[in-house]
Write a structure and sequence with these properties.
Mean pLDDT: 85
Number of strands: 4
Shape: elongated
Largest sheet: 2 strands, antiparallel
Strand order of the largest sheet: 1-2
Radius of gyration: 22 Å
Number of helices: 7
Oligomer: single chain
Distance between the termini: 44 Å
Strand content: 5-15%
Structural class: mainly alpha
Number of domains: 2
Low-confidence stretches: none
Helix content: 40-55%
């Protein structure tokens, strides 16, 4: 993400922060409580914050690797830092966040058995791929799971629990 985009996001976060008020139960505005801060925002500021989340997700391929909830949580952490200390170097904090997201390479594969569904070809539902499984694929998955389990840092007690699965 370019420095100009980071600066624009920082300026928008500062604008949102300027609209923060102490919680007032009768006002009907959005209450927020996270990362040690508790405040209230007008609805247009809440929408502006969500638009910043969407803007970050549009960067590179972040929308493919991160959920809106994840990015919102990370941005709220930066926002809380701004509310706690208005002298924070907001651009550096945002650069660190974007840098962390740029470097994130973890991919997760979850294998689970689904009973009662008969598939003849692979089917994709959202970001989930359902694939028919034969004995050779099942054996391959078991071997891969066994290798991952045996090479994990967990002790024998934890490993023995999963060996029975």
């Amino acid at each position: 993400m370019h420095h100009k985009a980071i600066k624009k996001i920082a300026d928008q976060l500062k604008e949102i922060a300027s609209q923060v008020s102490a919680p007032d139960l009768g006002d009907g505005e959005s209450f927020q409580m996270h990362h040690g801060v508790f405040y209230q925002l007008p609805n247009d500021a809440v929408i502006a914050f969500k638009e910043l989340v969407a803007q970050i997700l549009r960067n590179d391929d972040f929308h493919k690797r991160f959920s809106e909830k994840y990015v919102e949580e990370k941005l709220k952490e930066v926002f809380a830092g701004l509310l706690k200390d208005s002298a924070i170097d907001l651009e550096s904090a945002l650069m660190a966040l974007v840098g962390e997201m740029d470097e994130y390479e973890k991919k997760c594969i979850v294998l689970l058995s689904v009973e009662g569904v008969r598939l003849s070809v692979c089917t994709i539902l959202g970001k989930v791929k359902l694939a028919p499984c034969d004995e050779s694929l099942f054996s391959f998955m078991q071997e891969k799971a066994q290798f991952v389990m045996e090479s994990s840092i967990h002790g024998e007690g934890v490993k023995s629990v999963f060996r029975g699965c």
